[in-house]
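Hello,

Following up on my earlier ticket. Below are the two sequence lines again, exactly as submitted.
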Amino acid sequence: MTEPEDVVDSPLLHQLKNHLSIVIGFCDLLLGDLPQDDPKRVDIQEMRKAGQAALDLLPDLSARMR
Amino acid sequence: MPDTAPLLLVVDDEPGILTLVQRFAEGDGFEVVTRPGGYALLEELTELNPDAALLDRNMPEVGGVELLKAIREIDPACQVILMTADATVESAIEAVKLGALDYLSKPLDFDRLRELLGGVRHGIARRQRLLAADTELATRFEFCGMVGRSPIMQDLFDLIRRLAPHARTALVTGETGTGKELVPRALHKLGPRKDRKFIAFNCSALVETLAESELFGHVRGAFTGAVEAKAGLFEQADGGTLFLDEIGELPLPVQAKLLRVIEYGEVQRVGATDSRKVDVRVIAATNRRLPEEVAAGRFRQDLYYRLNVVEIQLAALRERRDDIPYLTAAFVQEFAARFQKRVNALSPGAERLLHNAPWTGNIRELRNVIERACILSDGRILSEREVLAALGGGARLAPPRAAAESTPLESEELAPELDREMIEQALQQVGGNRSAAARKLGISRRALYRRLDTFGLR
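Thanks for your patience. The regenerated structure is below:
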């Protein structure tokens, strides 16, 4: 609830956010499952970072769609 | 009692989210059911009966908020968490006002979700422990079939223990449903006659002539149909205890005969000229006020004085409300086992309702209410909804309406069919406070007012 109210104002953006949430969510699940020294963690963290970055673009995207 | 994992219902129109949350919650010790939402789910809710639900706010057909309302109505004990991709402060406040446990934004914060689900799990475990503890106490404070931890009951048990070895006659008084029949059995069991016969007789069950021959016996040919001589209950109970229930209903002529038996220990069969010696402990019980019956000429004064040498008075349940949790626990255990229900806890709301009910029918009424509530219950927590329906004299539980005709579901439209009696009862239980009554009934205040108008109660 940290975002301003009008961040997601179209069904398209809503869906995009949902999908990115799934990407990030599964990354979190995998990171929770894997032992701390597992080499795959780094890869997953990269995926998560990219997902989060895309998520962070949404406010911008929303503003430009006006 | 070994218990299964609590059930979490997850509803989202996005399959990925369902898989995600399922993976997470199963790892966290929950049994998980996922649904894509839609009208069909509304009809399935009662059957699913989840302990907790995680709902997406924005779904086609039925939104998370409507679903929240429906779940709160069916089972107020179910903890609901809403989730959404576009959280706003306003919608969060609305959700919490409607009874949601929390409001999560996507992407889900798993740490927060784990915390919430842990709270739900602990809450259920706590309610189960409470009832288990009460059941335990009920066993410990059980005395010859009577359960009571209250001072008033402990005094009664003491009195029975002290009287049991000596009392020749006793009168048990108390309102209907207070368990008067248990006292004579206790006196018998704890007394010197415990190995002899205990015979119970309900004085209201028979007409005068039959009552007489039943109690005192008759000789052959004493009246039409008396083809064989027959020993009465007094002779049968010789050396033991005879319990005369509802003594206030005994016809006056029989009362006179009864007095003679008690005073002289001699019983005369109907139609006989001689009498026989009997040694019987007589314990009578009544829910009538015998002094009033005496004043009205319906009960013999001498018999009354003979009987009330020892009077054991049973308290009404409302005079010992502290015992309600233990009695409830004992009954829940009994009926859950009998009906093979998995109910093993009470919601706080259900506890409150039971504690505050007027209980004019005393323990018998409480027992019947718990029996009905257990029949109605599908989950492991007995909620105020089931208790309220059971208190309402078996009012039926209305399933949420099929949603086909009602696209935007208003809380009122989903409200159960509340009859006048249920509303009056709810009002009475909260001392006339309408907001509290509405909460208790699970409807809005506006909806309550509308019903008050309908029933002319306003």
